[in-house]
Amino acid sequence: MDTDNFKIFINELADISGEYIAKSFGKNVGVDFKCDNSPVTEIDRNTELLLRERIQQKFPTHGIIGEEFGNVNENAEFVWVLDPIDGTKSFITKVPLFGTLIGLQYCGKPIVGVIDQPILKERIVGDCKTCTFNGKQVRTSQRTSVDGMTLLTSDSRYCADLHGHKAWKELENSAAISRTWGDCYGYMLLCRGLAHVMCDALLEVWDFTALLPALAGAGASFSDWNGGNNIGHDGGLIASCTPELHKQVLDIIKINQNL
User: Fold this and answer.
1) Could you tell me if 199 and 178 are in contact, meaning their C-beta atoms sit under 8 angstroms apart?
2) Which of 45, 169, 179, 258 has the fewest CB atoms within 10 Å, counting from its CB?
3) Distance between CA atoms of 125 and 143, rounded to whole angstroms?
4) Reported pTM
5) Residues β-bridged to residue 137
């Protein structure tokens, strides 16, 4: 499928969201907490409304799935999946390691995705075949061993609690650098070759839909925590820069998971 027109439009969407978010960053905004205790602001909500309005104008028959306002026509052939601010905890503490995630599914399969960081003016666009950073094609690092790797996660507590404290500790001990430069920004670093492994213990559809076309386009290997395709809320996501490194990461987890 030719995705060029969709990539043009997804960049337009990122321009819209980025301009609005950048004007609000660093200001004191009201914070509410959802039933799962995750924070949300009026900026999250307003950004999603802006994106929904533009999508419905451009593609009235397409579906939309959004974190803040639910689903519309989610069984359509084409469905846009929105996370207006992925990393709201970073946003409200004025740390520019959040981003906007916009993904497009075709018959349930992610085909195009954007990761946009509007404060640093950094943008990843992927279509499963290619991945660009600010318009220039990028690839993952070619590191094949856990020795010397940079390991990232959004929250190490979730990784340990949900997938085993021993397994996570062994993985961290194998890394030269282990940091929580997480949420979508960690995947951006991985796609650019600046990090080697990014792990999330659980993700919702609006968290991972935009990521997968970028990871695939950059040459990353990815799976759920068991090495399968159950990426999402139950299976989480592990992405690595090479197949060889990915296998070593999964082996460390498997060996130590029940200890």
Assistant:
1) no
2) 258
3) 23
4) 0.96
5) 132
